[in-house]
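Support reply, case 0932

Customer input (verbatim):
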Amino acid sequence: MSLEVKIPPVGESITSGLLSVWHKNDGDAVAAGEILLTLETDKVSSEIQAEQAGVLRIKVPAGTDVKIGEVVGTIEEGGAAGSSAAAAPKAAKPALPAAKPAAEPMPAVQSPSVAASSSPAVSPAPAAKTQSVAEAVAAANVALSVVSENLPAASSEGRITRKRMSPLRKKIAQQLVAAQHTAALLTTFNEADMSAVMKLRSQMQEDFTKEHGIKLGFMSFFIKAVVSALKAVPALNVRVDGDDVVHNHFYDVGVAVGTERGLVVPVIRDADKLSFAEIERALADYAVKAREGKIKIEDLQGGVFTISNGGIYGSLLSTPIVNPPQSGILGMHKIQERPIAENGQVVIRPMMYLAMSYDHRVVDGKEAVTFLVRIKDCIENPARLLLDL
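Our regenerated output:
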């Protein structure tokens, strides 16, 4: 008796995806609950598990576009692993010369679901208790060839390699181009003296960590500052829906996170109701999910404003692009000591350039500048955030 392996529903409005990786080979024995394949969509990647134990028969190779509900393989109950004719060539495949791996280091293989721990699993052939160096090299070469067969196809054309754009990368491209073609984007700039926040973190870090079991970062201050600014300038807490302007009365703040697969923006829900510790825990949870490729669609939906921190990569200044259908995005940047004028004196301060892009269709320059100045004031006077001023 065999069970069909079908592509399951992974979220509303998603009808197809890319079968990017098979984590098992044709003819391998699988256990119930074991990860079989990774499905990559324009929003998230999902790991599909085996519903029963048995022997896997692959019908659709990795690198293929598939529909939701499509049968991509079967699991034969009680079959013998490796009994199919398709599995025989793999076992008989000759090993590459032993010198080749030494000359060309084995590349790190990583699944499109971001985390290194999600790399395609390769089941090695049973080995004797003692194994010669040649046998070890041969086994490694076989493993490498199996992994290579499981990756999406890429073609070499002389001095270039052509690889198909992932669904997520295509979606990112479409969103960014649509934002620039649809919205009237404008960016305003300012800078913030980070001295007060850095001093507060330094003074309270040990007690904060001991009390809450997590470190106090900069992002929680900026999320709180954005909430304060959204309350002070509600014209930024809007979105365009056709010919209507929809005003939001909640404060779900998105935080852009870079992953190996591309940019995702998980949302901190009701940030106005969360403490600094709760925000830091939410950020830490999303960081783990991003590394392990377990960000869900519902994690990305419903944000009213986005924060992007290019400073962690060393960016000094940028013009972030609004994340539709939102009307504003804040760009954080690298903290850099610079000479500034203060009370008629030149002093050195840890400064950060701030950039806020906004949709000029619904947000005027006065409102945008006021919004960014509010964020600057909150960061330079963090007591405002603690006292909700």
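We compared this against your earlier run and they match. Two observations from our side: The CA atoms of residues 91 and 142 lie 8 Å apart. The chain has two domains: 2-164, 168-386. Please reopen the case if you see a mismatch on your end.
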